[in-house]
Automatic annotation (TrEMBL):
Also involved in hydrogenase metallocenter assembly, probably by participating in the nickel insertion step. This function in hydrogenase biosynthesis requires chaperone activity and the presence of the metal-binding domain, but not PPIase activity. The keyword Isomerase applies. This is Peptidyl-prolyl cis-trans isomerase. Its EC number is 5.2.1.8. It is an enzyme of class 5 (isomerase). It is found in: Cytoplasm. Keywords: Chaperone, Cytoplasm, Isomerase, Rotamase. One of its GO terms (molecular function) is isomerase activity. Pfam families: FKBP_C (PF00254). InterPro entries: PPIase_dom_sf, PPIase_FKBP_dom. It catalyses: [protein]-peptidylproline (omega=180) = [protein]-peptidylproline (omega=0). Belongs to the FKBP-type PPIase family. Residues 6-79 form the PPIase FKBP-type domain.
Length: 160
C-alpha cells in the first residue's frame, strides 16, 4: 500500500541540523502516526512521503519554508512568567512551552523579569534547512472517524 491522502502513516525519523548533528529522533521507540493529506504533518515531509510504501527508508533535506517556517523578525512578545511550562527558573536561551489559541507552542526565552518574560515566538528551528532520515513503518487506510477528526488514532497517533 502506498502513501496517499486518507492513509494513516507510521514512521520513525531522525532530524539533523545543517552540520549533520542529531537534534531529535524516535529511533528505538514506537513510530509516530499521522493522517496523510490533512495538515497533520509538515508540508515538506508529506511531499517527500507521497507514494512511498511500508519499509521505505530515505533522507530528505528541506528548506525552512517546508518545515518550521522562516524566522519572523517581529516575533517578540512579553508574557507572564506563570504561563511558561518546562522549568521553575527561567534564563535567556531556554525553550519553554506556552498554551495558545492554536494549541501548545514552543518559544525561546530572551529576557527574564520578576513577573514578565520576553520570548521569541518563532519555533526554535525556524529559518533552518533540516535533514530528516525517514523510515515508513506502516501504511493503512484511515477509518471514517479518523478522517472526520482529521488525525490518526491509536498507536503513535491521537488518543481521545
Amino acid at each position: 500500500m502506498t502513501i496517499a491522502k486518507g492513509k494513516v502513516v507510521q514512521l520513525t525519523y531522525t532530524l539533523r541540523d545543517e552540520q549533520g548533528d542529531v537534534l531529535e529522533t524516535n529511533e528505538g521507540s514506537a513510530p509516530i502516526a499521522y493522517l496523510h493529506g490533512y495538515n497533520g504533518m509538515m508540508v515538506g515531509i508529506e511531499k517527500a512521503l507521497e507514494g512511498k510504501a511500508e519499509g521505505d527508508s530515505f533522507s530528505v533535506t528541506l528548506p525552512a519554508s517546508e518545515t518550521y517556517g522562516e524566522r519572523q523578525a517581529d516575533a517578540e512578545q512579553r508574557v507572564s512568567v506563570k504561563h511558561l511550562q518546562g522549568a521553575k527558573v527561567w534564563k535567556p536561551g531556554m525553550v519553554a512551552v506556552v498554551n495558545t489559541d492554536q494549541g501548545q507552542r514552543q518559544v525561546t526565552v530572551l529576557k527574564v523579569g520578576k513577573f514578565m518574560v520576553t520570548v521569541d515566538t518563532n519555533h526554535p528551528l525556524a529559518g533552518r534547512e533540516l535533514t530528516f532520515d525517514l523510515t515508513v513503518a506502516g501504511v493503512r487506510d484511515a477509518t471514517e472517524e479518523e478522517v472526520a477528526h482529521g488525525h490518526a488514532h491509536g498507536a503513535g497517533g491521537h488518543h481521545h
